[in-house]
Specification:
285 residues, alpha/beta, D-Maltodextrin-Binding Protein, domain 2, 9-stranded mixed sheet, 9 helices, globular
């Protein structure tokens, strides 16, 4: 009998690859780590190649694993689409999802990618903006739901917390300059308010050299070495530096992340997507 690739095993493999660890994949799939290990062992025996590098901090794909994961995702996409189409049980329709730029960079590929893979007939339109802009769009019913920041990290609906951090260009120590040059988001955003209030409490002089709601713009200014900025920790690119505490900058707060909904949002699709976010977001690395 010819060897075949099992759909369930391929699904486990792709989730492990995306999660970067057996423990996080086990939570997402509601399986034990030992069951996932057995599935990967069978898959490696079937293909004749090691597919994962196992280390203390998780797993990464081997060259053969990289090759297989591409095939696996395409096989799963076609399988799920065919099953949904022929059975009539699949979710379909569209929704508009709001997300701040920094969370989009950190979380969207896994949140939206995994959901649309499971429900290929669903179309999700992404609208990015600050939390304040997204609240405005929700009130105007321009979006169905949004991932937003909140200052109260102990709220019952908080899905996870993210610290705000100071960032700068390692080769341009402008944090030693007075007044301190800042690149900040718009005035009413949490990071802008946190930066200014913390510096004022410290009685440290500063000047705003760039202000914009664009995360890309803020990062570009920091890369140029003209200013430091405040970002959520998860959104800090690898080529700029999270500034250490011992350089004397004031401490910054953490933000909570939760979901907010348009008043008229009642569809089963929105309910399913929000449930998916509530399950997956807290365990994303």
């Amino acid at each position: 009998m010819a060897a075949t690739l099992d759909i369930d095993v391929l699904r486990s493999f792709t989730v492990i690859a995306d999660a970067g660890s057996f423990s996080r994949a086990a939570i997402r799939l509601a399986k034990t780590q030992s069951a996932l290990s057995m599935q990967i062992k069978r898959l490696e025996e079937l293909t004749g190649h090691a597919l994962l590098h196992r280390g203390g901090r998780g797993v990464t794909l081997t060259s053969h694993g990289e090759k297989l994961v591409g095939y696996a995702k395409e096989i799963l996409r076609l399988h799920d689409h065919a099953l949904a189409d022929l059975s009539g049980r699949g979710l379909s329709g569209s929704l508009k999802f709001g997300c701040p730029d920094d969370y989009a960079a950190c979380f969207l590929p896994q949140l939206v990618g995994e959901f649309t893979r499971l429900h290929p007939a669903v179309f999700i339109e992404i609208i990015c903006g600050t939390t304040q802009q997204l609240h405005h769009r929700l009130r105007r019913k321009e979006i169905d739901l949004a991932l937003i920041s909140v200052e109260e990290t102990d709220r019952e609906d908080t899905l996870r917390t993210e610290p705000l951090v100071w960032v700068g260009q390692p080769h341009s120590p402008v944090w030693e300059v007075s007044p301190l040059p800042l690149a900040l988001s718009e005035k009413n955003t949490f990071d802008h308010k946190a930066a200014i209030s913390s510096l004022q409490r410290q009685k440290r002089s500063y000047r705003i050299v760039y202000a914009s709601g664009s995360l890309t713009g803020l990062i570009a200014v920091v890369r140029s070495g003209q200013a430091i900025a405040v970002l959520t920790k998860c959104a800090v690119p690898s080529d700029i530096q999270e500034l250490p505490k011992d350089i004397g900058l004031p401490a910054l707060p953490q933000l909570g992340i939760t979901l907010a909904f348009s008043e008229e949002t009642t569809s089963s699709l929105v309910e399913k997507f929000s449930s998916h976010i509530e399950k997956v977001l807290p365990i994303l690395s």
